[in-house]
């Protein structure tokens, strides 16, 4: 009889998992070679773990510390408030004594749920939220269903990374009139002392409000070490009953608050004295609004899940209200790249967001306009005019690239990439006030930089010498195709911005833009740089002149460049190159090659179990938001046929791969248009 019960239970569990594995939910039951996904709200990111009641780490957006050894800034891994220790009848619940484990990421609601059985005693679920409506807080919702009578002990923890300085741990019960508010808290300085970080936490019992505080379990405080501060309770659960509770934490720093200690307490109190329904309703409403911009693929569930997971992460890593940007790994990792901001944002992540969520897109461009003055100082320091934006940017807007990397002094196309993003933002939004106040001032300084950066040749043409191009395998070259093409485009856009805003347009902008060299090989293939001889390339460079720059625009030339450079792409390079090739083949009407390259742009980089993207096929650093931006562009600008033009977003010659029944793009542009491909 017991065996039959187990078979039935296993069958029902299988049905549950399959029911949850759909276009919005990715459910996995195998945790081998586990790579987590990020549960983020644009301010804090919680990286998931296969262990019950655990997260791997916390990442804090725009909170940087400076390593005196590397001499560059690093984004901060915060204190971890997302971990619980749960004991049932004295046994600590671990991955070794549970069964029927599954995890589900609900992309629609930005919720991550772990479910499992503990021996034959309990069925448990734990759902993690980084609350979108309360951007400095997280919320962990737990349900324990007792199959037999059990005693539980639950320990909430604030764990401070051991590199932090001078942690101060406390527990206090705050009181106002008849309301008591138990607050666990740790305050410490970041590893190199730049910021003070304060994290507070408390338990919430959903069936007990503030007028019934005497029914709360007794809380016990223990400081395990100076780096682990804990608060616990014990409770008996009768057979057939369940216990529902939450653990909530708030993490604030001096990067955003003059008094992060008090503010983190207030935020936890706010969560404590609001119901779960109210808190989660606010969170879900904001995510529902985000998903007004969506991509719907019919007939291919795997592609639908992959695309939604990519779009989920871009939404999760950005916000519309903080004027911050998105690093290549978003809010999933501190390394690689130290959480710095690159061209990855403007060229890869920004375009899909510009189509589907102009509010987040505005934050990304405002991040750059807010750092215009440091870019102007940097141009002066290197002997140029205008603004010279850093290859790697942090909170200061100064160059944050490690000194050993040649990209810092020489990868100048970033300055043009920013200008292109600025004009495209105006193209989509038609926000003349923004263009006058923020857009044109940046575009002007970018144009002035390129006029001072070029060298005039004897034939009247202009060269841009000694640069690192998009293909970073070829450093310190002259007349790199993408650098020259992006500079031409940025100069042209500065002219247009001047006309719209009624500002002065320097005649040198047009003169230089018209005459910057784009080199060719003898057979007509666009030459990547002046000494290029067929070497393997790191990523797309020449082909970016066809998309997104539209400089190489005739069909024959596009196809010639595609066929020449695709075999040159390194297997060790990042995935974005193939997404560009996919867009171009789709626009040429070749759905087969477009779909092949769409899949090659990300499938080799997917990590178990959820398909999180790594930068390369041989790495497991995720989530690579740059790759997400690339594969989304293949769908939006390739298959869907969308184009950003001076008169807005239009659709030209969409094409559907045979593997899909239909493609729908919802919420495009300010008018929230819907585009179909059937």
3D architecture notes:
The chain contains 16 helices and 27 strands. It is an alpha+beta fold and 678 residues long. Helix 6 (358-369) crosses helix 9, helix 9 runs antiparallel to helix 10 and helix 14 (576-587) packs antiparallel against helix 15 (591-600). The longest helix is centred in the middle third of the chain and has 22 residues, at 432-453. The protein is globular, with a radius of gyration of 27 Å.
Topology readout:
Elements: H1 2-20, E1 25-28, E2 38-40, E3 44-48, E4 55-67, E5 72-77, E6 80-88, E7 91-92, E8 98-106, E9 111-118, E10 122-130, E11 137-146, E12 150-159, E13 165-176, E14 179-189, E15 196-205, E16 220-225, E17 228-237, E18 242-253, H2 260-272, H3 276-290, E19 294-298, H4 301-317, H5 343-356, H6 358-369, H7 372-381, H8 407-410, H9 413-429, H10 432-453, E20 455-456, E21 462-463, H11 481-501, H12 507-515, H13 555-565, H14 576-587, H15 591-600, E22 606-607, E23 612-613, H16 625-639, E24 642-645, E25 648-651, E26 662-668, E27 673-677
Antiparallel strand pairs: 1-8, 2-3, 3-4, 4-5, 6-7, 6-12, 8-9, 9-10, 10-11, 11-18, 12-17, 13-14, 14-15, 15-18, 16-17, 19-26, 20-21, 22-23, 24-25, 26-27
Question: In a nutshell, what does this entry contain?
Answer:
With 678 residues, this protein is an alpha+beta fold. It is built from 16 helices and 27 strands. β2 (38-40) and β3 (44-48) form a beta hairpin.
Distance between the amino and carboxyl termini: 53 Å
Q: Which structural class do the helices and strands define?
A: alpha+beta
Rg, Cα atoms, Å = 27 Å
CATH topology call of the largest domain: Beta-galactosidase, Chain A, domain 5
Q: Note the main sheet.
A: 9 strands, antiparallel
């Amino acid at each position: 009889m017991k065996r039959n019960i187990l078979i039935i239970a296993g069958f029902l569990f299988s049905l549950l998992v399959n029911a949850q594995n759909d276009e919005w939910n990715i459910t996995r039951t195998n945790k081998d070679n586990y790579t987590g996904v990020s549960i983020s709200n644009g301010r804090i990111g919680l990286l998931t773990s296969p262990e019950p009641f655990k997260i791997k780490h916390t990442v804090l957006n725009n909170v940087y510390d400076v390593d005196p050894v590397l001499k560059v800034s690093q984004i901060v891994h915060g204190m971890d408030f997302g971990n619980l220790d749960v004991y049932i009848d004295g046994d600590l619940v671990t991955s070794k004594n549970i069964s029927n484990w599954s995890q589900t990421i609900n992309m629609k609601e930005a919720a991550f749920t772990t479910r499992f059985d503990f021996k034959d005693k309990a069925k448990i679920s734990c759902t993690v939220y980084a609350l979108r409506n309360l951007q400095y807080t997280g919320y962990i919702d737990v349900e324990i269903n007792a199959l037999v009578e059990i005693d539980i002990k639950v320990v909430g923890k604030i764990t401070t990374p051991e590199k932090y300085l001078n942690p101060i741990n406390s527990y206090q019960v705050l009181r106002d009139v008849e309301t008591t508010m138990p607050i666990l808290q740790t305050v410490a300085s970041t590893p190199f002392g730049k910021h003070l970080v304060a994290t507070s936490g408390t338990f919430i019992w959903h069936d007990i409000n503030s007028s019934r505080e005497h029914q709360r379990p007794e809380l016990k405080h223990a400081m395990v070490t100076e780096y682990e501060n804990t608060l616990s309770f014990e409770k008996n659960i009768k057979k057939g009953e369940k216990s529902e509770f939450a653990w909530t934490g708030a993490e604030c720093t001096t990067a955003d608050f003059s008094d992060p200690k008090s503010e983190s307490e207030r935020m936890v109190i706010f969560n404590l004295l609001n119901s779960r329904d109210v808190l989660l309703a606010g969170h879900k409403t904001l995510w529902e609004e985000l998903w007004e911009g969506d991509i719907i693929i019919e007939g291919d569930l795997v592609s639908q899940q992959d695309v939604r997971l990519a779009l989920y992460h871009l939404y999760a890593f950005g916000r519309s209200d903080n004027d911050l940007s998105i690093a290549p790994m978003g809010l999933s990792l501190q390394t690689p790249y130290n959480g710095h901001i690159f061209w990855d944002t403007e060229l890869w992540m920004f375009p899909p967001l510009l189509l589907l969520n102009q509010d987040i897109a505005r934050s990304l461009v405002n991040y750059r306009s807010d750092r215009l003055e440091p870019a102007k100082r940097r141009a002066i320091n290197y002997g140029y005019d205008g603004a010279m934006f850093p290859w790697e940017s942090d909170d200061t807007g100064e160059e944050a690239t490690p000194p050993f990397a040649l990209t810092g002094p020489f990868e100048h196309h970033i300055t043009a990439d920013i200008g292109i993003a600025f004009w495209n933002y105006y193209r989509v939004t038609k926000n003349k006030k923004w263009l006058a106040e923020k857009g044109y001032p940046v575009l002007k300084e970018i144009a002035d930089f390129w006029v001072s950066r070029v060298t005039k040749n004897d034939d009247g043409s202009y060269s841009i010498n000694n640069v690192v191009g998009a293909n970073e395998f070829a450093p310190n070259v002259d007349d790199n195709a993408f650098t020259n093409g992006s500079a031409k485009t940025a100069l042209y856009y500065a002219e247009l911005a001047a006309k719209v805003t009624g500002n002065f347009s320097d005649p040198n902008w047009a003169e230089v833009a018209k005459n910057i060299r784009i080199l060719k090989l003898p057979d007509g293939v666009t030459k990547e740089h002046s000494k290029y001889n067929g070497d393997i390339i790191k990523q797309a460079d020449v082909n970016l002149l066809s998309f997104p720059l539209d400089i190489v625009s005739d069909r024959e030339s596009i196809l010639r460049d595609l066929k020449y450079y695709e075999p040159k792409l390194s297997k060790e390079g990042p995935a974005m190159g193939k997404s560009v090739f996919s867009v171009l083949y789709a626009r040429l009407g070749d759905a087969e090659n477009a779909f092949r390259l769409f899949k090659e742009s990300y499938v080799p980089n997917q990590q178990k179990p959820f398909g999180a993207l790594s930068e390369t096929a041989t790495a497991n650093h995720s989530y690579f938001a740059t790759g997400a931006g690339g594969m989304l562009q293949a769908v939006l600008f390739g298959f869907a046929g969308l184009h950003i033009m001076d008169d807005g977003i239009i659709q030209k010659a969409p094409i559907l791969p045979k593997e899909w029944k239909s493609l729908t793009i919802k919420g495009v542009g300010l008018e929230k248009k819907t585009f179909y491909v059937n």
